[in-house]
Each structure stands twice: as structure tokens, then as C-alpha cells.
């Protein structure tokens, strides 16, 4: 028994609550409902699963299937409907709360990597490896607008009117959604290697970008604020460098979380440039994470993320887990800037 206990504690070093049953394959996204503690996970076993989280337990609610691995998910702003996209080149709309059937509402010419609902426009946006963004009125078969991207879409974040798109070849394309048919600005990522994730500032003044080299860039859009930009290292251990896979702003305190292929997650305050809390490393990578709508739950997935290839995949240890951490205020509340004598 002792061995079993120690194995269990090592698998979950932060003593987080585990969501059961476990998904059957590696996770690609986690999304909390904007209105409730419904959690959706997409995975490489072609499934979109939903759990109801509450009072120290998790209840599997429902699931739908795609024809191929699912890569992304997003909720409608009213919390009734889930969108999911993936390698079958389509986006499905799942009226989860009404118990309705999922239907295809968007199509691309290559896998769909990112999807987001823009409530102010009543449109869905999908980003694909076919090098396009497509805006959809979900009642129409054809896209409302197709926007060419400089390369494959790898990451996307919306905080209206700001939309940030990270593509292959380190392009960051910035859109003002009040004029979505033209790029507002295009820059090279402040990081030297491939973009993995982006997050829009809560005040819409800029964005975070994470890359495969264990570094995050904090970038402001307005030219007058460029002096505030900086990058920092994270998810590194000695000479080992791990990908930053996920960036999430806390909905109340506006601090943020990073999660990486080293199996660790951290909470940060960009304004005081401090790490607020470092958590123990899990035995496998963390490919995705999400705060719930009031920031009282941080969900993170632990599973093989294929960043080190098929040859390093060990089916014996390849359990996929979803964990829930309840952040304490000290872990997520920003700290005052350390005075330097300058404003």
C-alpha cells in the first residue's frame, strides 16, 4: 500500500483534485463555461467531454465525437453552447445545455487549430493551418469573411475589440475587431522561437506570447508604451528548456498563469514583474489550462504532449489527467511594484 500511496502522490505533487473519469488520450484544450463550473476538454481521441464541477466533486455531463483528433474549444458567452475544432477540418457547435445534437458550422481546408466566439459581433472565428481566419454566422453555410494569414495559425486570443493571432514563422497579427477585414498591425514575435500560445491583456492594451524556448513576452500594442515591453524565462531547469504551452489571465486579479512541458505551472504578476507562486512539477507535461469564470478554480491537464516525439512516448506511463487547483488569494493577487525612484 505504501508504494501505491507514494506513486499516487508523485503523480499529483500539488495535491490537486482529480477530475474523473480520465480522458483516453492526450489533451489539447480546456475551457470553462463563462457562466458556470462546466469544464470542457478536447483530446486526441476525437472526443469533446464536459464535466460539472462542484463541492469537491466532478460529474461527467456529456460528450461528443469528431472524426479525427480535436485541437481546440470555446464557449458561447451565454454558457449554453460549446464550439470545437480539429483535424477533421471542421468546427462543431454543440448546444450542450439544451441537450441538442452537435452540428458542423464551419469548414477549413486544413486542421482547425483555434476557435473563439466574439459575442459583440455574434460571430464565431476559426483559425486554421490553411493560413486563414474565417468568421462565421453560425446560421449560414458560408463564412461571413475569410482573412488571409501570413502562415499557419498556431494561437489566437480575443478580448474585444482586440484579437491576437500567432502564426508559424513567428508572425503576430493584431486585429481591431471593429474593423476585422484589415490587419491593425503585424509584428515579429519578441521571442526568437516558434509561438505556442498567446493571451490578450484584460485591458486590451497588449498581449502575452509564449514560445517553445521556455520564455514569455509581455508586449504592448501602442508604440508609446514600448518601453514597458519585456521578456522573461520560465519552464526551464538547468540546461533543459521546455515549451510554454498555455497562458491564462486571472479573471479578477489580472495576474496570469503559465503552464509548460516541464510539468509545472506558475502564477505571475506582469505589472510588478514577479512570480507569485511556483508549483511542484508533475511527472508529465501540462499542455493546456484554464481559470473558471471567477478565478476560484484553475484546471490543468497532465499528459504526454508529443513535444519529444513518438520515441519518448511510454504507453505504460501515458495516463492523461485533469486536475483542479483552488488558488489562494496570495497566489493570484498582484503585489505592489517595488519602488525604484522612477515612475
Automatic annotation (TrEMBL):
<feature type="repeat" description="WD">
    <location>
        <begin position="244"/>
        <end position="278"/>
    </location>
</feature>
<feature type="repeat" description="WD">
    <location>
        <begin position="105"/>
        <end position="146"/>
    </location>
</feature>
<dbReference type="GO" id="GO:0043130">
    <property type="term" value="F:ubiquitin binding"/>
</dbReference>
<feature type="repeat" description="WD">
    <location>
        <begin position="63"/>
        <end position="104"/>
    </location>
</feature>
<dbReference type="GO" id="GO:0006405">
    <property type="term" value="P:RNA export from nucleus"/>
</dbReference>
<dbReference type="InterPro" id="IPR015943">
    <property type="entry name" value="WD40/YVTN_repeat-like_dom_sf"/>
</dbReference>
<keyword id="KW-0853">WD repeat</keyword>
<dbReference type="GO" id="GO:0000972">
    <property type="term" value="P:transcription-dependent tethering of RNA polymerase II gene DNA at nuclear periphery"/>
</dbReference>
<dbReference type="GO" id="GO:0005643">
    <property type="term" value="C:nuclear pore"/>
</dbReference>
<dbReference type="Pfam" id="PF00400">
    <property type="entry name" value="WD40"/>
</dbReference>
<dbReference type="InterPro" id="IPR020472">
    <property type="entry name" value="WD40_PAC1"/>
</dbReference>
<feature type="repeat" description="WD">
    <location>
        <begin position="20"/>
        <end position="61"/>
    </location>
</feature>
<dbReference type="InterPro" id="IPR001680">
    <property type="entry name" value="WD40_rpt"/>
</dbReference>
<keyword id="KW-0677">Repeat</keyword>
<dbReference type="InterPro" id="IPR036322">
    <property type="entry name" value="WD40_repeat_dom_sf"/>
</dbReference>
<protein>
    <submittedName>
        <fullName>Predicted protein</fullName>
    </submittedName>
</protein>
<dbReference type="GO" id="GO:0003723">
    <property type="term" value="F:RNA binding"/>
</dbReference>
